[in-house]
């Protein structure tokens, strides 16, 4: 690999940018394609599919063979609220390959005893997210039922284009949430990205079942996410 391309690849990975290292197997020419780069035609479609699947491999496009080496930032879940659902979700997310952090300023809930081995931060989300900013490869799961805790990270997740933004609560609770977000200037189109009630509708009742529904919806959103593409190739 060309040293310049290697440096570029490493810089993109450190910045949590999705890239494909594309090699033309016919003539050996290679280049880095970022998710934000628009590549038109069948090759662009193959690259888009690779970004969504995260799988590297050879593709045949218009009589030429290309190897697509995909580098995606590790997808992560940020859970706002150290509740029973979060306990179950922490164990399941690890098995599914997601990094997971739990944020809750309520020290009675955010305890090491309840979340042994988890990445747990007992602080206000607005302070935590300054040090750990959200991005397009992050899912935001808000489950405290407390607007003072949930509203800020929900707004931050929409601004950061998180691939998933979900919030616990009934339709009535969410309607009040929408009113608050509109009042502070959040666009209606952005608000419509919030998954509420949270999780796929599987009839979940227990905290563990709700965690399953949430994780399934997160996975679905990740695999079907809209790519952030540019306007030209």
Automatic annotation (TrEMBL):
UniProt protein name: Xanthine dehydrogenase accessory factor
InterPro entries attached to this UniProt entry: MoCofactor_Util/Proc, XdhC_Rossmann_dom
Domain XdhC Rossmann: 77-218
Pfam families: XdhC_C
């Amino acid at each position: 690999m060309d040293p310049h391309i290697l440096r570029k690849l490493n810089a993109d990975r450190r910045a949590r940018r999705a890239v494909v290292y594309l090699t033309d197997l016919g003539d050996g020419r290679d280049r880095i394609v970022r998710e934000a780069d628009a590549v038109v035609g069948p090759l662009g479609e193959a690259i888009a599919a690779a970004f969504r699947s995260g799988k590297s491999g050879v593709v045949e496009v218009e009589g030429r063979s290309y190897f697509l080496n995909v580098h995606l930032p590790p997808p992560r879940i940020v859970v706002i609220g150290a509740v029973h659902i979060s306990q179950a979700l922490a164990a399941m997310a690890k098995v599914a390959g997601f990094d997971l952090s739990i944020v809750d300023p309520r020290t009675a809930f955010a305890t090491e005893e309840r979340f042994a081995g988890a990445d747990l931060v007992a602080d206000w989300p607005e302070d935590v997210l300054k040090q750990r900013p959200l991005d397009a490869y992050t899912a935001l799961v808000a489950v405290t039922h407390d607007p003072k805790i949930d509203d800020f990270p929900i707004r931050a997740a929409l601004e950061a284009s998180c691939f998933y933004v979900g919030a616990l609560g009934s339709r009535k609770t969410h309607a009040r949430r929408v009113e608050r977000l509109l009042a502070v200037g959040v666009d209606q189109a952005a608000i419509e990205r919030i998954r509420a009630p949270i999780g796929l509708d599987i009839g979940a009742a227990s905290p563990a079942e709700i965690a399953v529904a949430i994780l399934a919806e997160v996975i679905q959103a990740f695999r079907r996410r809209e790519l952030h593409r540019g306007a030209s190739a």
